[in-house]
Protein backbone atom coordinates (compact mmCIF):
# COMPACT_ATOMS: atom_id res chain seq x y z
CA UNK A 1 0.00 0.00 0.00
CA UNK A 2 1.27 3.47 -0.80
CA UNK A 3 0.08 6.94 0.11
CA UNK A 4 -1.70 7.25 -3.25
CA UNK A 5 -4.16 4.52 -2.22
CA UNK A 6 -5.42 6.09 0.98
CA UNK A 7 -5.31 9.69 2.17
CA UNK A 8 -6.84 11.41 5.16
CA UNK A 9 -7.34 15.17 5.15
CA UNK A 10 -8.73 17.12 8.12
CA UNK A 11 -11.62 19.40 7.19
CA UNK A 12 -9.87 22.71 7.83
CA UNK A 13 -10.30 24.32 4.43
CA UNK A 14 -13.95 25.32 3.96
CA UNK A 15 -13.74 24.73 0.21
CA UNK A 16 -12.60 21.10 -0.02
CA UNK A 17 -13.93 19.29 -3.06
CA UNK A 18 -13.53 16.03 -4.99
CA UNK A 19 -10.67 17.23 -7.15
CA UNK A 20 -9.54 13.61 -7.65
CA UNK A 21 -12.35 11.74 -9.40
CA UNK A 22 -10.46 8.42 -9.28
CA UNK A 23 -10.97 8.03 -5.54
CA UNK A 24 -13.81 6.98 -3.27
CA UNK A 25 -14.46 9.37 -0.40
CA UNK A 26 -15.67 8.91 3.16
CA UNK A 27 -16.62 12.21 4.81
CA UNK A 28 -16.65 12.11 8.63
CA UNK A 29 -18.35 15.29 9.85
CA UNK A 30 -18.45 16.50 13.45
CA UNK A 31 -21.37 18.05 15.34
CA UNK A 32 -23.07 20.31 12.80
CA UNK A 33 -19.75 22.03 11.99
CA UNK A 34 -19.95 21.61 8.23
CA UNK A 35 -22.41 22.12 5.39
CA UNK A 36 -21.72 20.05 2.31
CA UNK A 37 -23.10 20.28 -1.22
CA UNK A 38 -23.54 16.92 -2.94
CA UNK A 39 -24.49 17.20 -6.60
CA UNK A 40 -27.09 19.99 -6.43
CA UNK A 41 -28.31 19.37 -2.87
CA UNK A 42 -27.06 21.13 0.27
CA UNK A 43 -26.82 19.10 3.48
CA UNK A 44 -26.59 20.91 6.81
CA UNK A 45 -27.06 20.09 10.50
CA UNK A 46 -25.12 16.85 10.05
CA UNK A 47 -24.42 15.48 13.53
CA UNK A 48 -21.50 13.02 13.78
CA UNK A 49 -22.26 11.96 10.23
CA UNK A 50 -20.40 9.70 7.85
CA UNK A 51 -21.14 10.05 4.13
CA UNK A 52 -20.01 7.58 1.46
CA UNK A 53 -19.32 9.20 -1.91
CA UNK A 54 -18.42 7.37 -5.10
CA UNK A 55 -16.15 8.56 -7.87
CA UNK A 56 -18.87 10.05 -10.04
CA UNK A 57 -20.48 12.23 -7.36
CA UNK A 58 -19.58 15.91 -7.23
CA UNK A 59 -19.31 17.30 -3.72
CA UNK A 60 -17.94 20.36 -2.01
CA UNK A 61 -17.64 21.65 1.55
CA UNK A 62 -19.56 24.93 1.34
CA UNK A 63 -19.45 26.19 4.93
CA UNK A 64 -17.31 25.46 8.00
CA UNK A 65 -18.59 26.79 11.29
CA UNK A 66 -15.59 26.46 13.60
CA UNK A 67 -11.92 27.44 13.51
CA UNK A 68 -10.37 24.00 14.05
CA UNK A 69 -10.88 20.67 12.33
CA UNK A 70 -14.52 19.84 11.63
CA UNK A 71 -13.91 16.22 10.69
CA UNK A 72 -11.99 14.29 8.04
CA UNK A 73 -12.12 13.30 4.39
CA UNK A 74 -10.78 9.76 3.90
CA UNK A 75 -10.05 9.09 0.23
CA UNK A 76 -9.64 5.47 -0.85
CA UNK A 77 -8.48 3.83 -4.05
CA UNK A 78 -11.25 1.46 -5.26
CA UNK A 79 -8.69 -1.37 -5.25
CA UNK A 80 -8.53 -1.21 -1.45
CA UNK A 81 -12.05 -2.64 -1.20
CA UNK A 82 -10.86 -5.79 -2.98
CA UNK A 83 -8.74 -6.75 0.00
CA UNK A 84 -9.97 -10.07 1.51
CA UNK A 85 -10.24 -8.49 4.97
CA UNK A 86 -12.99 -6.17 3.70
CA UNK A 87 -14.73 -8.57 1.32
CA UNK A 88 -17.53 -9.72 3.65
CA UNK A 89 -18.67 -6.33 4.87
CA UNK A 90 -21.97 -4.73 3.90
CA UNK A 91 -19.98 -1.96 2.26
CA UNK A 92 -19.07 -4.45 -0.46
CA UNK A 93 -22.21 -6.57 -0.37
CA UNK A 94 -24.44 -3.57 -1.00
CA UNK A 95 -21.97 -1.67 -3.16
CA UNK A 96 -22.74 1.56 -1.33
CA UNK A 97 -20.03 3.40 -3.22
CA UNK A 98 -21.80 2.52 -6.47
CA UNK A 99 -25.22 3.61 -5.28
CA UNK A 100 -27.11 6.28 -7.18
CA UNK A 101 -28.31 7.56 -3.83
CA UNK A 102 -26.20 8.99 -1.01
CA UNK A 103 -25.36 6.56 1.81
CA UNK A 104 -25.15 8.57 5.03
CA UNK A 105 -25.14 7.46 8.65
CA UNK A 106 -25.42 9.28 11.96
CA UNK A 107 -23.31 7.81 14.75
CA UNK A 108 -24.10 7.90 18.44
CA UNK A 109 -21.58 10.03 20.41
CA UNK A 110 -19.71 7.00 21.77
CA UNK A 111 -19.34 5.34 18.37
CA UNK A 112 -18.39 8.69 16.82
CA UNK A 113 -15.43 9.02 19.20
CA UNK A 114 -14.21 5.54 18.36
CA UNK A 115 -14.51 5.98 14.60
CA UNK A 116 -12.66 9.29 14.87
CA UNK A 117 -9.87 7.57 16.82
CA UNK A 118 -9.64 4.87 14.13
CA UNK A 119 -9.31 7.44 11.35
CA UNK A 120 -6.59 9.24 13.30
CA UNK A 121 -4.68 5.97 13.88
CA UNK A 122 -4.87 5.16 10.16
CA UNK A 123 -3.51 8.61 9.35
CA UNK A 124 -0.68 8.14 11.85
CA UNK A 125 0.26 4.75 10.37
CA UNK A 126 0.30 6.08 6.80
CA UNK A 127 3.21 8.35 7.71
CA UNK A 128 5.33 5.63 9.33
CA UNK A 129 7.69 2.93 8.13
CA UNK A 130 6.62 0.37 10.71
CA UNK A 131 6.75 -3.32 9.90
CA UNK A 132 3.34 -4.77 9.01
CA UNK A 133 1.83 -1.27 8.74
CA UNK A 134 -0.31 -2.33 5.76
CA UNK A 135 -1.88 -5.16 7.76
CA UNK A 136 -2.58 -2.74 10.60
CA UNK A 137 -4.22 -0.21 8.26
CA UNK A 138 -6.50 -2.84 6.71
CA UNK A 139 -7.40 -4.09 10.18
CA UNK A 140 -8.34 -0.57 11.26
CA UNK A 141 -10.35 0.01 8.07
CA UNK A 142 -12.19 -3.23 8.75
CA UNK A 143 -12.92 -2.10 12.30
CA UNK A 144 -14.13 1.28 11.04
CA UNK A 145 -16.62 -0.31 8.65
CA UNK A 146 -17.70 -2.90 11.21
CA UNK A 147 -18.64 -0.07 13.56
CA UNK A 148 -20.66 1.49 10.75
CA UNK A 149 -22.35 -1.84 10.04
CA UNK A 150 -23.07 -2.23 13.74
CA UNK A 151 -25.02 1.00 13.75
CA UNK A 152 -27.52 -0.69 11.42
CA UNK A 153 -27.25 2.38 9.25
CA UNK A 154 -24.87 1.42 6.48
CA UNK A 155 -27.66 -0.57 4.83
CA UNK A 156 -29.73 2.59 4.56
CA UNK A 157 -29.44 5.51 2.18
CA UNK A 158 -31.02 8.93 2.13
CA UNK A 159 -33.39 9.38 -0.75
CA UNK A 160 -35.54 12.41 -1.34
CA UNK A 161 -37.91 10.18 -3.30
CA UNK A 162 -38.12 7.27 -0.90
CA UNK A 163 -40.70 7.99 1.79
CA UNK A 164 -40.06 4.68 3.58
CA UNK A 165 -36.32 5.29 3.67
CA UNK A 166 -36.86 8.81 4.95
CA UNK A 167 -39.15 7.46 7.67
CA UNK A 168 -36.60 4.84 8.72
CA UNK A 169 -33.91 7.52 8.82
CA UNK A 170 -36.09 9.59 11.19
CA UNK A 171 -36.77 6.49 13.30
CA UNK A 172 -33.05 5.76 13.70
CA UNK A 173 -32.35 9.34 14.72
CA UNK A 174 -35.10 9.10 17.33
CA UNK A 175 -33.59 5.86 18.65
CA UNK A 176 -30.18 7.52 18.99
CA UNK A 177 -31.74 10.41 20.89
CA UNK A 178 -34.26 8.59 23.09
CA UNK A 179 -32.83 5.11 23.67
CA UNK A 180 -32.44 5.53 27.42
CA UNK A 181 -36.12 6.48 27.71
CA UNK A 182 -37.95 4.43 25.07
CA UNK A 183 -37.42 0.74 24.35
CA UNK A 184 -40.70 -0.13 22.63
CA UNK A 185 -41.54 0.16 18.95
CA UNK A 186 -44.89 1.68 19.93
CA UNK A 187 -43.11 4.61 21.64
CA UNK A 188 -41.28 5.55 18.44
CA UNK A 189 -44.36 4.96 16.29
CA UNK A 190 -46.20 7.45 18.47
CA UNK A 191 -43.42 10.02 18.05
CA UNK A 192 -43.64 9.53 14.29
CA UNK A 193 -47.48 9.63 14.29
CA UNK A 194 -47.77 6.22 12.61
CA UNK A 195 -48.80 2.74 13.73
CA UNK A 196 -46.23 0.26 15.11
CA UNK A 197 -47.23 -2.16 12.35
CA UNK A 198 -46.42 0.35 9.62
CA UNK A 199 -43.12 1.33 11.28
CA UNK A 200 -42.07 -2.32 11.45
CA UNK A 201 -43.07 -2.82 7.82
CA UNK A 202 -40.95 0.15 6.69
CA UNK A 203 -37.92 -0.89 8.75
CA UNK A 204 -38.18 -4.47 7.49
CA UNK A 205 -38.42 -3.28 3.89
CA UNK A 206 -35.47 -0.88 4.12
CA UNK A 207 -33.12 -2.69 6.51
CA UNK A 208 -34.14 -6.33 6.32
CA UNK A 209 -34.89 -6.68 10.05
CA UNK A 210 -37.48 -5.34 12.48
CA UNK A 211 -37.69 -2.08 14.39
CA UNK A 212 -37.49 -4.09 17.61
CA UNK A 213 -34.24 -5.72 16.40
CA UNK A 214 -32.72 -2.29 15.76
CA UNK A 215 -33.65 -1.02 19.22
CA UNK A 216 -32.32 -4.20 20.84
CA UNK A 217 -29.01 -4.01 18.99
CA UNK A 218 -28.46 -0.41 19.98
CA UNK A 219 -29.24 -1.26 23.61
CA UNK A 220 -26.83 -4.18 23.48
CA UNK A 221 -24.02 -2.09 22.02
CA UNK A 222 -24.43 0.67 24.61
CA UNK A 223 -24.74 -1.89 27.41
CA UNK A 224 -21.59 -3.68 26.38
CA UNK A 225 -19.61 -0.46 26.12
CA UNK A 226 -20.68 0.75 29.56
CA UNK A 227 -19.92 -2.63 31.11
CA UNK A 228 -16.44 -2.73 29.57
CA UNK A 229 -15.38 0.90 29.82
CA UNK A 230 -17.21 2.56 32.72
CA UNK A 231 -16.98 2.26 36.49
CA UNK A 232 -20.75 2.26 36.89
CA UNK A 233 -22.28 -0.69 38.69
CA UNK A 234 -24.52 -3.07 36.78
CA UNK A 235 -27.47 -1.62 38.70
CA UNK A 236 -26.48 1.93 37.71
CA UNK A 237 -26.05 0.92 34.06
CA UNK A 238 -29.43 -0.78 33.98
CA UNK A 239 -31.25 2.34 35.21
CA UNK A 240 -29.16 4.69 33.06
CA UNK A 241 -30.23 2.75 29.98
CA UNK A 242 -33.88 2.82 31.01
CA UNK A 243 -34.42 -0.77 32.16
CA UNK A 244 -37.07 -1.33 34.81
CA UNK A 245 -34.75 -3.38 37.02
CA UNK A 246 -31.19 -4.79 37.11
CA UNK A 247 -32.69 -8.28 36.85
CA UNK A 248 -34.47 -7.47 33.61
CA UNK A 249 -31.31 -5.81 32.26
CA UNK A 250 -29.32 -8.98 33.02
CA UNK A 251 -31.99 -11.13 31.35
CA UNK A 252 -32.02 -8.89 28.26
CA UNK A 253 -28.23 -8.82 27.95
CA UNK A 254 -27.76 -12.57 28.42
CA UNK A 255 -30.56 -13.34 25.98
CA UNK A 256 -28.78 -11.32 23.25
CA UNK A 257 -25.14 -12.13 23.98
CA UNK A 258 -25.22 -15.51 25.69
CA UNK A 259 -23.38 -14.24 28.76
CA UNK A 260 -24.42 -12.25 31.80
CA UNK A 261 -23.27 -8.65 32.41
CA UNK A 262 -21.15 -9.78 35.36
CA UNK A 263 -19.48 -12.49 33.26
CA UNK A 264 -18.61 -9.92 30.57
CA UNK A 265 -16.91 -7.75 33.18
CA UNK A 266 -14.79 -10.66 34.39
CA UNK A 267 -13.45 -11.38 30.88
Summarize the structure.
The protein has 267 residues and is of the alpha+beta class.
Structural commentary:
- The chain is α+β, with helices and mostly antiparallel strands.
- The chain folds into two domains: 6-150, Jelly Rolls, CATH 2.60.120; 163-266, Arc Repressor Mutant, subunit A (Orthogonal Bundle), CATH 1.10.10.
- 45% of the residues lie in helices and 15% in strands.
- It contains ten helices and eight strands.
- The strands form two sheets. The protein has a five-stranded antiparallel beta sheet, with helices on one face. It has a three-stranded antiparallel beta sheet with strand order 4-3-6, with no helix packed on it.
- Strand 3 (34-38) and strand 4 form a beta hairpin.
- Helix 7 (211-229) packs across helix 9.
- The chain starts with 5 loop residues before the first strand and ends with a helix.
- Mean pLDDT is 81; it is low at 91-95 and 152-161.
- This is Helix-turn-helix domain-containing protein.
- Residues 169-267 form the HTH araC/xylS-type domain.
- It comes from Winogradskyella vincentii.
- Keywords: DNA-binding, Transcription, Transcription regulation.
- InterPro entries: Homeodomain-like_sf, HTH_AraC, Tscrpt_reg_AraC-type_HTH.
Amino acid sequence: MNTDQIRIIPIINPHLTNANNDMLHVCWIQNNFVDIKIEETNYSNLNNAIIFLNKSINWKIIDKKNKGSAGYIMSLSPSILNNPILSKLHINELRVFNSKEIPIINLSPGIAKRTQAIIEMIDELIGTHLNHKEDAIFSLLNTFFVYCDGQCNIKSVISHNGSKKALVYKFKKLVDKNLSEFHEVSDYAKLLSITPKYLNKCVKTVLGFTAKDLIAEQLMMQSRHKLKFSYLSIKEISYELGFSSPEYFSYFFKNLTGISPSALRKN
